[in-house]
Amino acid sequence: LDQATIVRIETKAAASLNERGWQTDYVMVRRQRDLMLPTDAELAQGEPLVCLVASRLGKTRLIDNLEL
To answer: How far lies 39's CA from each of 13, 33, 34, 61, in Å?
Structure first.
């Protein structure tokens, strides 16, 4: 896993939600400790990550996170 892969995952996840009728504000994979984008070195060392998502369906905005 590297930064380029994270960007591809974020982009594909947002597109997948949008194809299903959601209006996605963001999909981000970040470091758990400070919510910054992890470096390739941190990823290689197994840095704890979190996936953050915010998306709207109709008038409802859902926000969630998942520790990875």
So the answer is: 21, 13, 13, 30
